[in-house]
Specification:
69% helix; guanosine-3',5'-bis(diphosphate) 3'-diphosphatase activity; 10 helices; mainly alpha; Hypothetical protein af1432; 0% strand
Amino acid sequence: MDFIDQAIQFSAKAHHNQFRKGTDLPYISHPYAVGMILMKHGCTEKEITAGILHDTVEDTSVTLKEIQEKFGKEVADIVEGCSEPNKDLSWEERKQHTIDYLQTAPIEVRLVACADKLHNIRSISHNEKTEGPTIWNRFKRGKDDQAWYYQNVMKSLEFQGGFPLLEELKTEVKELFS
């Protein structure tokens, strides 16, 4: 079994009984979608694997050590780069950390982070169209703060130079927040 298949099984178990914010959609749909976006963009097996695993350390009991043992240091490093720091920090501090880090992050981390943000934006956009503006109540911060975050993430992702996946994110962010 290759790393991608192993990552799908591992992530499905780790995210068992989790759901997307304010929905009954199984959470695992998000890591799968991130992996599919990365695959569509011709990313490497390690980047796709990390995309599928990107939320396991942040949102489950899985540790970076487990990721490294099962999938190797490169995948673990990408997952770590896509994970927010200490959950005890405020929303603003965690988001600012991500914005700052992505400016100098390796391209592998920027690709996975971009695919993650792209799928999140597509999901939010779809939900806003089908359910209306009340969807913003699901989040710790409302639409204006989310706009600030995503616009600054885009600037950080582009800091070292753009890439095709980032152009998709820019289009979706502009459409949602304009």
